[in-house]
Design brief:
Length: 117
């Protein structure tokens, strides 16, 4: 037994057990045209409910500047394999069965759980 194997050597030897056809499929998946930019949509209903005469300009800045730029950045940075059907959110994965994070601004719309996104 050779104790001086590096991690890369162990990794290569582990992959040697993979059939060559499987390696080709894996390589095609990584380099395939199936990867598309992640589609991002911001639901701002909770933010809009907080709108008043004192914060209206700030909310406009967030919804018209920050969120579109953030969505564009992450859409370009993250690629996904699109699904054929809608993805449904499981209420059991949400805080209080309705929030994704902070309960003040992150209420998940009921239709995301029933119909999906």
């Amino acid at each position: 037994k050779n104790e001086s194997n590096t991690g890369a050597e162990r990794h290569d030897s582990a992959n040697s057990n993979v059939h060559s056809d499987d390696k080709d499929v894996y390589a095609r998946r990584l380099n395939s045209d199936v990867w598309k930019p992640m589609r991002i949509k911001f639901i701002t209903d909770a933010l809009e409910r907080q709108r008043n005469f004192m914060n209206s300009d700030k909310i406009d800045f967030i919804t018209e500047q920050i969120l579109p730029l953030t969505g564009d950045f992450w859409s370009k940075a993250l690629s996904v394999v699109p699904v054929d059907n809608a993805l449904r959110i499981d209420a059991y994965d949400l805080a209080g069965r309705q929030y994704c994070g902070d309960s003040e601004f992150s209420e998940v719309p009921a239709q995301h759980m029933s119909e999906g996104v």
